[in-house]
Amino acid sequence: MTIFLNFLLTSEKYRATLVYWVLLAQRWALPCYTEKPLGKRVMGMVTLQKCNNNIILASDGEREVIALGKGIGFNARPGEEVDASRIEKVFVPQETAQISRFKDILADLPYEIVLLAGKIVDCGKARLRRNFNQSIVIALADHLNFALSRIKDGMEIELPMIWDIKHIYPLEYAMSRQLLVTIKEDTGIELPEAEATAIALHFINAESDYPDMPNTIRMSKIIKKSIEIVEAHYKTTLDDSVPDFNGFVSLLRSTIMRFLYDKDEKQVKNDMELHTLLRRRNASEFDCAEKIAAFIGNEYNWQLSMNDVSFLALYIQRITEYGDSEL
Predict the structure, then answer these.
(1) CB 95, CB 32: distance < 8 Å
(2) Is 302 helix (H, G, I), strand (E, B) or coil?
(3) Model confidence pLDDT, tens digit, residues 272-284
(4) Which helix (H) or strand (E) holds 307?
(5) What domain range is 96 assigned to?
(6) Confidence (pLDDT) at 267
(7) Does the structure show a pLDDT above 50 at 196?
(8) Which of 4, 120, 205, 282 has its Cα between 20 and 30 A from that of 132?
(9) How many helices (H) and strands (E) does the chain have?
């Protein structure tokens, strides 16, 4: 069992949270899909199945797709051409076998919530200037529907990763806090500030080509521990507002993702000469980087290369220049 689950299980305070995260993680581990831009290709679509009044399963002549639009499913019959003027979004699952899962999840969600999720994702793209795996729209809509229902029912759930997300991913967290205002404007319901953590996690998860919420949470725990190792080594508090801090986090993320998803990737040959030179010039930083490598190796059985350690050492040298020393 992961460190994260052990932490939750040993805390009475977070037991309800464990159930919440596990159940949603099962739905958030969605297969990838693309959002098809509207244009000529929406013409000539044929209805295959009505999901509800706003969602249908259709064929664009090449594959099965999920089409969304206000009233698109009203009186829709299999074999009939889809009214293109009603189509607002078209989702194309990359795995045909999983299309029924998408369809079932979307059919259970209020259409207004799906549109709100799409609006939030568009805001995220603009503010962070990044592209996201489009599975975030469905996953975020599912989460928002549950979160808003909880508030209406007076159910409170505490999220244990607020510090982690706020400090490891400050840009995503700050943006998600701002998006709580958008949600209130659209729904009239004010979500607690802690919900910014969950929204940020969705964006962090969707930055990967392999959206997988449990691994995103595991990655956050590894990064947090790595930061703690640096702070303990230098007896300092790192400044998460400096650009190099984000670079350090990004380096750790890409390294972890390589172990998670690219296990057969051909490794670049270690540059022994450069490694020796840097080791001699930055001995303390290398000692710290090797502590991180030892932690990852002992806990997850992932062996970082000399190149990995060298890059970590270079970033450690940069981020510790801005720390608040406790000495």
Answers:
(1) yes
(2) coil
(3) 777 787 788 889 9
(4) helix 306-319
(5) 35-104
(6) 57
(7) yes
(8) 4
(9) 13, 7
N residues, the chain: 327
Q: Is residue 116 part of a domain?
A: yes
275 CB neighbour count, 10 Å cutoff = 17
Question: Which DSSP string do the residues of 241-260 spell out, in sequence order?
Answer: TSHHHHHHHHHHHHHHHHHH
Residue 272 CB contacts under 8 Å (≥ 6 apart), including other chains: 306
Structure tokens that stand for 190 in this block: 């004010």
Residue where a domain terminates, one of 173, 206, 239: 206
- Sign of the Cα torsion 108, 114, 116, 118 reads positive
Q: Does residue 124 carry a pLDDT above 80?
A: yes
Asked if 17 and 96 sit in the same domain, the reply is no
Mark 230-256 as b/e (b = at least 16 C-beta within 10 Å). bbebbebebebeeebbbebbebbbebb
Q: Which two tokens stand for residue 5?
A: 């689950």
The pLDDT, as a whole number, for residue 66 is: 85
DSSP-assigned letters across all residues of 185-226: HHHS----TTHHHHHHHHHHHHTSSS--HHHHHHHHHHHHHH
- Token pair 């009475």 is found at 12
Q: pLDDT higher for 309 or 6? A: 309
Q: Does any domain span residue 2?
A: no
Distance from C-alpha of 175 to C-alpha of 311, rounded to nearest angstrom: 29
For residue range 11-55, list pLDDT tens digits in order. Answer: 444 444 444 444 444 444 444 444 544 444 466 789 998 988 998
Of 150, 182, 206, which residue constitutes the final position of a domain? 206
In contact, 289 and 316? CB cutoff 8 Å? yes
Q: What is 71-131 written as a DSSP string?
A: TTTTT--TTSBP-GGG--EEEEESSGGGHHHHHHHHHTS-HHHHHHHHHHHHHHHHHHT--
Assigned token pair, 289: 């980087």
